[in-house]
Prior knowledge:
The chain has 3 helices and 8 strands; from the N terminus they run E-H-E-E-E-E-H-E-H-E-E. It has one domain (6-119). By secondary structure, it is α+β, with helices and mostly antiparallel strands. It has an 8-stranded antiparallel sheet with strand order 2-3-4-5-1-6-7-8.
Amino acid sequence: MRQPDIEIYLKDVDHNAIAEWLGAALGPCTPWQQKGQTYKCRAGDVPVTWLPKAVGKWNSLYLESDSTPWQDDLSCAQAAFAALNVEVRCAPGGWEEEESEEQADRWMRISADGVEEITWRTNG
C-alpha cells in the first residue's frame, strides 16, 4: 500500500544536494524558502520540507505527497542512499499514533552495509 507521505532522515548532507537529487527524481525544485529552522520548496508538484539537525546530526526530509516515484519511506530511503551515498534512516512502515514506545524505536538503516533494522531512540 502506498504511503500518503514520505519522511526519511539523512546524515551528513545539506539541502542543496537534496534539491539536486529531488530535481532529478521528481522534477525541478523551486528555490528553498527558509522559515525558522525549516526549509521548504517544491520538487515538481511535491511540497518538500527539510529540517536540519531534526534528531542530533540527522536531517529530516519530508515529502508531503503520495505522488512520488516511491511506494514508501524505505524505497525512498534506498533511492536516497543510492544517489547521495550517505546513511539514511526511516520508519519500517507507516507510523501510527497508537504505536507503543518500543515500536516507535524500530527504524530501518540504509548504509553501505545494506538494509537492517535497528533500535534508534529518537526521543531523549
